[in-house]
Amino acid sequence: MNKETRLLNKENNILDSKIKEENQAIFTDMICYLRSSNLSAYNIEVVRNDLTEMILSAQERGENINDVVGDDYKDFCNSIIDTFPPKTVGEKISEFTDTLSFSLAILLFINMLLSRDFINLIAGLIRGKNVTYSIPVTPGILIQIIAIITFATFLVHVITKNSLSLSESKEKLIIIIACIILSIALALSFMLRTAMFNIHALVLIGLIILFSLIHIIISRVL
Questions:
Q1: CA distances to 1, 7, 77, 90, 147 from 214, in Å
Q2: DSSP character for 162?
Q3: If pLDDT is split at 50, 70 and 90, which confidence band does 166 have?
Q4: Residue 23 phi, psi (nearest 5)
Q5: Do the Cβ atoms of 134 and 198 come closer than 8 Å?
Q6: Chain Cα centroid distance, residue 134
Q7: Residue 154 pLDDT > 70, yes or no?
Q8: How far apart are CA 180 and CA 176, in angstroms?
Q9: Contact 30, 72 (CB under 8 A)
């Protein structure tokens, strides 16, 4: 999210707070649907700003969101989406790289902190003992990282894409099914503990920093 997009996002957050509770749920679903579209982050904020202004004007006239967009929210959103250019290839690559880098940084950091070998390494350094800096990488860790990123991405896509047509019961069912499949994948990951290779602790920390910097550069600069 570049500076221009961040400023508009901040402005929109302030405007959104003025939307009445009776209109808030549909408005939120519409924004979620827009976020699943092929619009750029900036254009989503532009649409969000326009839609917010329309709803606030309607509220001042004593009307609600249905008086502005009609009863077919999905059709209204699609009509707006069609008036904007789709994301460029560069924007898609940047968005994918940003999400992947952020996910890898977080998951590698969590796995490192929970690693028995890393805990022993820190404990040994504190006590002034000779330590090994090698941290084993198992198939389970790789499965865990891939499973979490895959199912999180799938879940977000399904819920946002169907935010205007998915009933609450179906949404809960999808979440439950996804959680069950993810739990099975995570259970398998804990069983596969044989080390495939070892990685130096400083290299692992360096990778976490690298992925974090990539995320920061893409989300703050590009």
A1: 13, 21, 32, 15, 22
A2: T
A3: low
A4: -105, -10
A5: yes
A6: 31
A7: yes
A8: 6
A9: no
CA distances from 53 to 42, 43, 65, 120 (A): 17, 15, 11, 56
The residue among 90, 74, 79 whose CA lies nearest residue 41 is 90
* DSSP string covering 61-99: TT--HHHHH-S-HHHHHHHHHTTSPPPPHHHHHHHHHHH
Nearest partner of 103 among 37, 52, 160, 147, judged by Cα: 147
Q: What percent of the chain has pLDDT over 70?
A: 96
Mean predicted lDDT score pLDDT of the chain: 88
Collapsing DSSP to helix, strand or coil, 220 comes out as helix
Q: What is the pLDDT of residues 82-127, one digit of tens each?
A: 999 999 998 899 999 999 999 999 999 998 998 889 999 999 999 9
b/e map of 37-52 (b: 16 or more CB within 10 Å)?
Answer: bebbbbbbbbbbbebb
H or E element that contains 9: helix 3-16
Q: Would you state the pLDDT for residue 3?
A: 79
